[in-house]
Each structure stands twice: as structure tokens, then as C-alpha cells.
Amino acid sequence: MADDDWRVTVTLPDEAEVKQALRSVHEAAEDLSRRLGHRIAVSEDGGTIFLYAGTEDAARAADRAVRDVLAERQPAAGFALDRWHPVEQEWEDASVPLPQTAEEQQAEHERRIADETRDSQATGEAEWEVIVDMPSRHEAAQLAGRLEAEGRSVSRRWRFVFVGASNEDEAGELAGVIAQQVPPNASVTTNAVLPVEAELAQAELAQSDENS
């Protein structure tokens, strides 16, 4: 994840106060972004507010600023500081260290693959996807048809074909197979299927880029 490896989560017990709290958090984040020279993105999902930063110092500054802003109006608000673990591909408490050795990284990767597979099987939803950008809509339709005939989970939007996979390793292997079947000017990439709050954060970051 780019420029948002750290996350502050604010949980409010009274959802009726979320709108007002979100306004205050946005103002605090904008002020902090100006003072730090580092963008703090804000999103909200289901009454929970998220702030994203690229460094630990910025995230801890955001945590302190939001606590101060909400101290009087939302004394029962809950706060958590998490860090994105690139191998596990999930948020962990900031106190959890990143794996250092190759063995630790491999063990964490294997745990994540197992977790992704289990979650995908339990929900029936792909945890990863292969995204194929074909040269034309017609070629995309043909590719989607072939993949569907193979029993793949496929969706298509215009020139783009999306193929579901249970985990990152499966997506990588599938992308390699598909790359051998498409024209040289087609693009084949893989991507984790993001949770809603992460998608909201990315949209917030993109909108901020457009306005800056």
C-alpha cells in the first residue's frame, strides 16, 4: 500500500455522533498535514473513522491530534494504532514487529496464504484477482469466455477481464498462465481484493491528489 502503511482507527460508541466527529477529524487531519508536510488521509466506514499515514511519527501525531479533538465531545471513543504488514497483507497492532529473517518472512507468507485460502473458501469470495487489460472489447469477451469454460470465476468490464483467485500465490500462477494466452500488448496484473475501508482510503488519497 502506498503512503498509508500506518492507520489510526477511531471507534465511536454513538453512531449518531459520527458525522460531527468526522468533520472534526477531517479538520484536524488537514491542519496536521499542513504542519507536518505529510498527507493524512481520512475515511469512514460503518461508523468507524480511519486515518492513514506513511510513517509511524505521522500516525502517532494523528492519533494524538484526534484524541485531543474528540476528548470533550467523544470521551468514550476507542483508538487503535496499526501497521500494514506487507507479507501478511493485513493490519497488525503497531507493537507487532515486522519479520526480519528470510525464514520469518517465509513463515509469515505461508500463514497468510493459508488464511486467504480459508477465508475465500468460507465466504465464496476471491481474496485476490488477476486483471487482464485486453487490446479490444471483443478480445476481452473471448478471453472471458475461455476462462469461464475452464470453471474460473470471471467478470468483465469493457476491455478488462477480472479472474478470481483464492490467494496471492494462486493469482500469481494464474497470471503466468494467462500471460501465455493473450497478445503481447495485453497487460496482466494481480491485485488483492481490498476490504471496503481500504478502498475508501485509496479513493480519498486519489481525490486528494487530484485537488492538490
How is this structure best summarized?
This protein is an alpha+beta fold. It has helices at 18-36, 56-70, 102-123, 137-149, 168-179, 196-211; strands at residues 6-11, 41-45, 48-53, 78-85, 90-93, 128-133, 154-157, 160-165, 187-192.
Description:
The chain has 212 residues and is of the alpha+beta class. The protein has 2 domains: 6-94, Ribosomal protein S10 (Alpha-Beta Plaits); 126-192, Reverse transcriptase/Diguanylate cyclase domain (Alpha-Beta Plaits), CATH 3.30.70. Helices cover 46% and strands 24% of the residues. It has 6 helices and 9 strands; from the N terminus they run E-H-E-E-H-E-E-H-E-H-E-E-H-E-H. The protein has helices spanning 18-36, 56-70, 102-123, 137-149, 168-179, 196-211; strands at 6-11, 41-45, 48-53, 78-85, 90-93, 128-133, 154-157, 160-165, 187-192. The strands form 2 sheets. Strands 2-3-1-4-5 form a 5-stranded antiparallel β-sheet, with helices on both faces. A 4-stranded antiparallel β-sheet has the order 7-8-6-9, covered by helices on one side. A hairpin with a 2-residue loop joins strand 7 and strand 8 (160-165). Helix 1 packs across helix 2. The longest helix is centred in the middle third of the chain and has 22 residues, at 102-123. The model is unreliable at 196-206 (pLDDT under 50).
In CATH, the topology of the largest domain is named Alpha-Beta Plaits
Shape: elongated
The CATH first-level class of the largest domain comes to Alpha Beta
Our count of helices gives 6
Neighbour order of strands in the largest sheet: 2-3-1-4-5
Q: Identify the quaternary structure here.
A: single chain
The CATH architecture of the largest domain: 2-Layer Sandwich
Overall radius of gyration: 20 Å
